[in-house]
Design brief:
Number of domains: 2
Largest sheet: 4 strands, mixed
Strand order of the largest sheet: 2-1-3-4
Number of helices: 16
Shape: elongated
Helix content: 55-70%
Strand content: 5-15%
Order of helices and strands: HHEEHEEHHEEHHHHHHHHHHH
Number of strands: 6
Distance between the termini: 24 Å
């Protein structure tokens, strides 16, 4: 009789009805949103802070380039020496004093600019001041050479090389960023899913083994059915928990934003002013258009289907190994010696994906690792946005499924013997012997 559906149902209900599972399912999004909200609120306070910067320009070249902004007020000081200016700024408790010392030659100005402040100044503010001064000095030098400001503006040229494949498909530089972002997110989700729920499977096996319940269960159930039931049941519980996190997290983000007026996007951009300046320099509108084009160029249908198959295949492959480890040991402490060989391929896959795929997605290294079953779920998902032939995807998936079946067979061998072994920490040599039983 096939008991697999009953085992899956039992494992699923046992997990979702567990008090700690229920508490963490609803508490985790609350904690995460609370942390994001606090960071966003603090960042928002920092960005909204009003700052006054005094300018002491002894050269007369730069005092007119500093215009007040929403959060920064510039005060020009005239007829004061440096010591008096510092004393005045400290008395007024201004944010700082920008001093441009008097020099004989224009070329020496850049080496005689100092910013005095009570505390270390903001990186974004210092970068903004430097850009203003650099631009003004460059203009003055060109004017001295007989070039007018109109000519300077007319000479500025923004080069954006258009990209197009031989088949006529258009793309842009930001395409690579979008493609890498998708692959990175997919790889990270798989990595975290394996770590979290693979450990849950392992702990479940250890718990039943140490409580001797397993001896009763295997009297009527085949070990491979019990192992597969645990893997699938726990996986379904994980999917349920993840779905609740996404839905509840989205609702909480909207509630926090609307009720408390906190812009949660501030949490991801602590240097908002610096980012805004960079976007202005590149052209925010053009960047947005390129981003939309990059997303539209993604093979979305292929990505979704491939993500499902490689995600499930990779998770089941590693879950079977976690279950085998749980059956081989008596407690979580003993699992440490077996965890490194499992985690190393995952870590290697992430590094290969980040440092190799982005540079050469169709190179030898990227291609080889996208076929190796223990790294293909991550590397292939990162390659697909760059355009991978369907036959390569199919071959990689077949190898992954074949390795999963082989891993289940080996894991079942270890599982069959290990669940009845107590009081002894196994070695790799003993595990190899169990495969022959």
């Amino acid at each position: 009789m096939n008991h697999l559906p009953l085992i899956i149902k039992r494992e699923y209900l046992t997990k979702v009805k567990n008090k700690s599972f229920i508490i963490m399912t609803f508490l985790s999004p609350l904690i995460m949103i609370a942390l994001i909200a606090v960071v966003a609120y603090l960042s928002q306070l920092n960005n909204d802070k009003q700052r006054t910067i005094s300018i002491l320009d002894e050269t007369g070249y730069l005092s007119d380039i500093f215009q007040n902004t929403e959060n920064i007020t510039y005060t020009k000081l005239n007829g004061l020496d440096l010591d008096d200016a510092i004393a005045l700024v400290k008395e007024k408790e201004d944010y700082g004093l920008l001093h441009i010392a008097k020099v004989d030659a224009l070329d020496a100005v850049s080496n005689n600019v100092k910013f005095y402040s009570e505390e270390s100044p903001s990186l974004s503010i210092m970068s903004g001041l430097e850009r203003k001064i650099e631009k003004r000095l460059q203009e003055i030098k060109l004017q001295k050479d007989g070039v007018t400001l109109t000519q300077i503006e007319a000479s500025k040229t923004n080069v954006d090389i258009a990209q197009e494949s031989f088949e006529g498909e258009k793309s842009s530089k930001i395409d690579n960023v979008v493609k890498l972002a998708f692959g990175g997110i997919a790889g990270y989700l798989l990595f975290m899913f394996i770590i979290i729920y693979g450990n849950m499977i392992m702990r479940s096996v250890i718990e039943e083994k140490t409580s001797r319940i397993i001896e009763v269960i295997i009297s009527s159930v085949k070990p491979i059915q019990l192992m597969m039931g645990k893997i699938i049941g726990t996986s379904l519980a994980g999917v349920t928990q993840f779905a609740i996190w996404v839905i509840l997290g989205g609702v909480l983000m909207m509630v926090v934003s609307s009720i408390f007026g906190i812009d949660l996007s501030q949490a991801s951009t602590p240097q908002q002013e610096l980012m805004n300046q960079a976007m202005e320099a590149e052209g925010a509108q053009a960047m947005a258009e390129n981003l939309i084009t990059a997303i539209s160029n993604l093979p979305l249908a292929n990505l979704v289907v491939a993500f499902m198959f490689f995600f499930i295949g990779g998770y089941l492959l590693y879950s079977s190994l976690y279950a085998a480890i749980g059956a081989a040991v008596d407690n979580e402490t003993d699992t440490q010696q077996f965890m490194l060989p499992i985690l190393m391929p995952l870590i290697l896959a992430v590094y290969v994906g980040v440092f190799t795929v982005i540079e050469d997605p169709h190179g030898t290294v990227s291609t080889v690792f996208s076929f190796i079953p223990f790294t293909s779920p991550v590397v292939m998902l990162m390659r697909i946005p760059f355009g991978v032939p369907l036959w390569q995807q199919g071959l990689s998936l077949v190898l992954l499924i074949g390795t999963f079946i082989l891993a289940v067979w080996f894991a079942a061998k270890i599982y069959r013997v290990g669940i009845l072994m107590y009081g002894k920490k196994p070695t790799y040599k003993e595990l190899f012997k169990w495969l022959k039983y």
